[in-house]
Design a protein that fits this description.
By secondary structure, this protein is of the alpha+beta class. The chain contains nine helices and 18 strands. The strands form six sheets. The chain has a four-stranded antiparallel beta sheet, with helices on one face. A four-stranded mixed beta sheet has the order 3-2-7-4.
């Protein structure tokens, strides 16, 4: 790399000096090399009185530190970089082609220089990286191909963002309508503790846990990967609501679907039977972040707080009791969920296509 490009990294203006910040210069940190905007801005004084360096739109940026170590992209903006970002200015090769080659070698680079994910990359390490460069004819063919793929991927990612925003907007509408027209009920009107039937667990594939920050019903449960130990487990059935005692205030709830019927959870993931209401409608209301805030108020314990099932049943919630309304909301929500899932699949397929071509066209 050192033979085909010049490199430089930046620095950070002194944090305590307010004159150095809130200016007009975007301050690009390692986690922002893929973005067209930055969280921080520095002033001309901050640039002049620090080691921060300017880059221009189209320059190649390489992340040296942090969770994004080894990632590379073309800068989408003019801005200043800090010490965790290395600017790479190729002498004759197209920066985009260099970025593809470095992307391909990311795993090998991290494996060699960051043992166990610890440590940082450096400019010297990056300059020592050996690349097999394409000929000019190959470069002129590869560039438009991968640019088309990148544009397609960006469009599909943007579409996913818009659909997700619409799904979130629907959730806000449901919340507003319930607040305006709903009747206040105690949860024990709709939830009860079912009989606890102990399960005979032979392997961990019979176990369920709940995911944090649920996005939907089908994605709300997963098979547990914990060891069995001497814990007691109890059978759960379709339509029951399960929640994590220790993390319900992070959105750890799920509605068991048919594919998970008859599997088991521990007492740390208790079950509640739903009645007198559309189960899916109640689930959509309970997965709202506002509900999670209420659960924080009833959590007990020091250190790792827990929500006990009897305390949960005492909580109140506003609900529009009309069954036809509930069915329509469930139908809308499920349709949005399917659209989001399909779009996520499309994005993943675009990413897989790019990676396949990257691995097979660059030898």
């Amino acid at each position: 790399m050192g033979e085909i490009a010049t490199t430089y990294s930046g620095g950070t203006p002194k944090a305590g000096n307010k004159k150095y910040y809130n200016g007009l210069i975007p301050f690009i940190r390692s986690g922002e090399i893929h973005s067209n905007k930055t969280e921080l801005f520095i002033s001309e004084a901050g640039l002049k009185n620090s080691s921060a360096k300017m880059v221009t739109k189209g320059d190649l940026l390489y992340a040296l530190y942090g969770a994004t170590s080894g990632e590379v992209d073309i800068s989408k903006i003019n801005g200043a970089i800090n010490q965790a970002v290395l600017a790479i200015i190729p002498k004759q090769y197209n920066p985009y082609i260099i970025s593809l080659l470095l992307s391909k070698k990311k795993d090998a680079i991290l494996s060699k220089y960051l043992q166990g994910g610890q440590g940082n990359l450096s400019a010297e390490i990056v300059k020592s990286i050996k690349l097999i460069l394409p000929s000019k004819n190959e470069e002129s063919s590869l560039y438009p191909l991968f640019k088309v793929l990148d544009n397609l991927l960006s469009l599909q990612q943007r579409k996913l963002e818009l659909i997700s925003a619409l799904e979130k907007g629907l959730g806000q509408i449901i919340k507003q309508q319930n607040n305006k027209y709903g009747i206040t009920f105690s949860l024990n009107n709709f939830l009860e503790i079912p009989p606890q039937i102990q399960a005979r667990i032979k392997n961990k594939n019979q176990l369920l846990t709940v995911k944090l920050n649920l996005q939907g019903i089908a994605r709300g449960v997963q098979r547990d990967t914990l060891s069995l130990g001497s814990t007691k487990y109890f059978i759960r059935h379709t339509g029951e609501l399960i929640f994590g005692k220790q993390n319900i205030f992070n959105g750890s709830i799920a509605l068991i679907t048919k594919e998970f019927d008859g599997l088991a959870t521990s007492n740390d993931v208790p079950s509640l039977k739903i009645s007198n209401i559309n189960p899916q409608f109640l689930f959509y209301l309970l997965k709202n972040p506002d509900f999670w805030k209420h659960t924080e108020l009833i959590a007990t314990g020091t250190g790792s707080k827990r929500v006990h099932i009897h305390d949960l049943l005492k909580l109140h919630i506003k609900i529009i009791p009309d069954a036809k309304y509930q069915a329509k909301i469930v139908s809308l929500s499920r349709n949005f969920e399917k659209i989001v899932l399909n779009q996520q699949i499309i994005v993943k397929e675009c990413e897989k296509t790019k990676q396949f071509l990257l691995q097979n066209l660059f030898i």
